């Protein structure tokens, strides 16, 4: 008997091997946006499925006699799905996006201008007067509004009050104080501070050192360079020189610092309101303190948070706009804040008693006044995807791999000169 | 006239055969050949909607792009580790479990289970195990008084290749096991009578007669290694820096983050050419090494 595999055997085995990934790929694929007249499709972030929004959906269904097909995704999957939809022409009616996509899709012609609706209904809904200016600006392109901000977040320094009290450390307000405090708090397997592997967290450090992501006049990135190098070097030295922060691990998950904070392995973290819930759930005994945004050359934090927009090929834009109006109403913002502590973009939201009474929410709400959108100028070039990818590489090479900050920033700038011609 | 000529037997057989093949041909045409054709035509276009003709511009750009070259090098290194590991570990495990051991069926099943598990689950599982601060592996090392490791920071490519091997080695083991069980015992007995020791029997009988299986395993491992995506996507997100920027992950980012579908398509075509070239070379080299006793 010959042990040799015949060509037929080889084909059988190859087919069986090929079938596994194919079947895996086919399993669980969500249905395409429905073209049924009674269905209204909404793409949403999986972490933002709040009861407050479910109530709005129920009311919307009742008012318009439609069934809302509420599809939830993680951000990368939502983007992949959406781009495939744009290519096929079968698009959802409303989309929640993580910040930055609205201008990107406005430039490419995939987002619908909402200006005519804003002109008609803006005054009644308080848009744009009741929205923080930064949120209107980041959702506009060439003088037209393409999206409406749903949440507005920023990052702050959160600290473990018990640990700081025990070490006799005051909450830091500047980079120098942060370094000193982190040094005093680092003992045994406890770190003074934990930094995030996600390059999005580099923004506040760069802004606090007066760095702009992009200067349209000179087409330079991370300007001035010396300030960018200094900001990157400061973060790397917290990890590698002073060893007051653990080496972050590259990945898709940005909850690493929160997990260390919850496990009482880190005394301070820089994060947004999204980590407050997990900290309360996993470590209710930790008394969390909130420091104002740190000051380097200036005091600053980043404006982040999601918006809603309508794809250009949406079949019923009037209906889509009505959904946008309902989901961004002040009462809905109030309900979502009460439910999960989410921060909102309306100026009147910041004055609500619920916001003023909660020390955590109030600290973030106060910081929103100095929040800036670092990436808006680069987004308007249409090259944000490349920029963001290169920023990730540069940030991680400095923070994780301890490459010299000056060389890494120069390499980043050199790459940008290629794609920003 | 030929149309009036009665059909021959072979022509009727051929027609029947083609009818049976038709569903498969349609399936492959719809889900493989048409998309491949679409990717090739998209690779000649540019712009966020890939609607402007660029000729071979995307190809020349890709060939000169250091990031593309880097991702191909990273992928080559990854595939090399996975291919070598699949063959060495798969064969070693198959030989161990080909012995009359108690519980060997249970061992075989245990080794095969990771292969049946989704790469996303395997990735998340190992990501948690390997976490330097809170992962169970470093906690265990610390408890044993051993130095803790930064697996995903110091050797990220090797680490994700090891995770891939952990997941796939059960499958290659099964293939080698089937190959081993197809080798007639008489060959080994004859060699023993001639005085050959275990090492010589392995080199002179087992390994040569396993050549077709080894060829199949290496071809499949090269293809899956060069097409690897989930490991970078789930475990490292391509980092730290670009240390695990595997080709398919790089192409995915060019397409879905930078929204350059034309450029991503050109890189996909280049990757396809590399995979086909490797496969042809392997098949040619493998056929030359086939042995019959």
Lay out the secondary structure.
The complex is a heterodimer of chains A (about 425) and B (about 290).
Chain A: H1 7-26, E1 39-45, H2 51-64, E2 67-73, H3 75-88, E3 94-97, H4 101-108, H5 115-125, H6 133-137, E4 140-141, E5 144-145, E6 147-149, E7 156-160, H7 161-167, H8 175-185, E8 191-194, H9 202-208, E9 212-215, E10 220-223, H10 225-240, H11 256-262, E11 266-271, H12 276-282, E12 288-291, E13 301-302, E14 307-309, H13 317-327, H14 330-340, H15 347-350, H16 353-357, H17 359-368, E15 371-372, H18 376-379, H19 384-399, H20 405-419
Parallel strand pairs in A: 1-2, 1-3, 8-11, 13-15
Antiparallel strand pairs in A: 3-14, 4-5, 6-14, 7-11, 7-12, 9-10
Helix pairs in contact in A: 2-13, 2-14, 9-10, 10-20, 11-12, 19-20
Chain B: H1 9-42, E1 45-46, E2 52-53, H2 57-64, H3 66-96, H4 104-116, H5 119-130, H6 136-143, H7 151-154, H8 156-181, H9 185-193, H10 198-209, H11 211-226, H12 230-236, H13 247-256, H14 261-288
Antiparallel strand pairs in B: 1-2
Helix pairs in contact in B: 1-14, 2-14, 3-8, 3-11, 4-8, 5-12, 8-11, 8-12, 11-14, 13-14
Task: Give an overview of the whole structure.
The complex is a heterodimer of chains A (about 425) and B (about 290). By secondary structure, chain A is an alpha/beta fold. Chain A contains 20 helices and 15 strands. Chain A has helices at about 5-25, 50-65, 75-90, 100-110, 115-125, 135, 160-165, 175-185, 200-210, 225-240, 255-260, 275-280, 315-325, 330-340, 345-350, 355, 360-370, 375-380, 385-400, 405-420, and strands spanning about 40-45, 65-75, 95, 140, 145, 145-150, 155-160, 190-195, 210-215, 220-225, 265-270, 290, 300, 305-310, 370. Chain A is globular. With about 290 residues, chain B is mainly α. Chain B is about 75% helix and about 0% strand. Chain B contains 14 helices and 2 strands; from the N terminus they run αββααααααααααααα. A two-stranded antiparallel ribbon of chain B has the order 1-2. In chain B, helix 3 runs antiparallel to helix 11. Chains A and B meet through helix 1, helix 3, helix 4, helix 11 and helix 19 of A and helix 8, helix 11, helix 12 and helix 13 of B.
């Amino acid at each position: 008997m010959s042990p040799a595999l015949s060509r037929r055997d080889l084909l059988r085995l190859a087919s069986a091997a090929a079938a596994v990934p194919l079947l895996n790929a086919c399993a669980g694929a969500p249905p395409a946006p429905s073209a049924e007249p009674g269905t209204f499709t909404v793409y949403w972030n999986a972490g933002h499925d709040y009861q407050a929004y479910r109530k709005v959906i129920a009311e919307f269904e009742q008012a318009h006699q439609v069934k809302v097909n509420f599809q939830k995704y993680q951000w990368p999957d939502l983007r992949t799905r959406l781009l495939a939809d744009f290519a096929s022409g079968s698009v959802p009616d409303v989309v929640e996006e993580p910040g930055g996509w609205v201008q990107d899709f406005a430039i490419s012609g995939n987002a619908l201008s909402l200006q005519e609706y804003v002109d008609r209904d803006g005054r009644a809904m308080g848009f744009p007067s009741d929205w923080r200016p930064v949120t209107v600006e980041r959702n506009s392109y060439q003088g037209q509004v393409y999206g409406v901000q749903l949440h507005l977040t920023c990052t702050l320094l959160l600290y473990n009050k018990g640990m700081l009290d025990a070490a006799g450390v005051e909450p830091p307000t500047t980079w120098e104080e942060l370094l000193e405090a982190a040094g005093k708090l680092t003992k045994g397997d406890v770190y003074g501070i934990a930094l995030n592997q996600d390059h999005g967290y580099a923004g506040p450090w760069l802004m606090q050192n007066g760095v702009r992501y992009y200067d349209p006049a000179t087409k330079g990135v991370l300007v001035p360079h010396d300030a960018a190098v200094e900001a990157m070097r400061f973060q790397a030295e917290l990890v590698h020189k002073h060893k007051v922060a653990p080496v972050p691990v590259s990945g898709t998950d940005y909850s690493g610092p929160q997990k260390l904070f919850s496990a009482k392995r880190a005394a301070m973290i820089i994060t947004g309101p999204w980590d407050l819930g997990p900290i309360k759930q996993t470590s209710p005994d930790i008394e969390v303190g909130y420091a104002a945004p740190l000051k380097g050359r200036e005091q600053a934090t980043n404006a982040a948070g999601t918006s809603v927009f309508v794809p250009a090929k949406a079949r019923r834009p009037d209906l889509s706009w009505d959904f946008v109006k309902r989901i961004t109403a002040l009462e809905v913002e109030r309900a979502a804040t009460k439910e999960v502590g989410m921060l909102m973009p309306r100026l009147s939201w910041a004055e609500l008693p619920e916001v003023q009474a909660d020390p955590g929410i109030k600290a973030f709400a106060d910081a929103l006044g100095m929040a800036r959108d670092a990436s808006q100028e680069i987004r308007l070039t249409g090259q944000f995807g490349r920029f963001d990818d290169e920023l990730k590489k540069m940030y991680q090479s400095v923070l994780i791999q301890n490459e010299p900050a000056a060389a890494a920033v120069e390499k980043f700038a050199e790459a940008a000169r290629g794609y920003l011609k | 006239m030929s149309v009036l000529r009665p059909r021959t037997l072979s022509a009727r057989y051929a027609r029947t055969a083609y009818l049976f093949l038709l569903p498969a041909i349609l399936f492959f045409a719809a889900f493989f050949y048409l998309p491949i054709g679409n990717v090739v035509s998209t690779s000649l276009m540019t712009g966020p909607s890939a609607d402007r003709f660029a000729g071979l511009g995307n190809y020349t750009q890709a060939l000169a792009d250091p990031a593309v070259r880097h991702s191909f090098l990273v992928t080559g290194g990854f595939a090399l580790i996975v291919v070598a590991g699949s063959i060495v570990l798969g064969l070693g495990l198959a030989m161990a479990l080909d012995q009359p051991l108690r519980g060997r069926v249970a061992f075989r099943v245990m080794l095969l289970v990771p292969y049946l598990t989704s790469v996303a689950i395997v990735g998340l599982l190992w990501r948690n195990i390997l976490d330097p601060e809170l992962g169970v592996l470093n906690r265990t090392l610390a408890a044993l008084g051993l130095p803790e490791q930064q697996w995903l920071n110091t050797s990220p490519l090797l680490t994700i290749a090891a995770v891939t091997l952990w997941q796939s080695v059960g499958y290659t083991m099964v293939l080698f096991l089937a190959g081993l069980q197809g080798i007639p015992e008489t060959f080994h007995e004859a060699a023993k009578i001639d005085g050959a020791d275990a090492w010589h029997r392995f080199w002179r009988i087992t390994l040569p007669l396993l050549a077709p299986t080894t060829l199949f395993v290496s071809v499949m491992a090269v293809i899956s290694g060069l097409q690897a995506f989930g490991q970078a996507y789930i475990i490292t997100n391509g980092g730290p820096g670009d240390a695990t920027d595997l080709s398919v992950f790089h192409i995915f980012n060019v397409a879905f983050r930078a929204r350059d579908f034309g450029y991503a398509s050109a890189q996909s075509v280049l990757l396809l050419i590399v995979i086909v070239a490797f496969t042809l070379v392997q098949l040619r080299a493998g056929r030359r090494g086939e042995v019959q006793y």
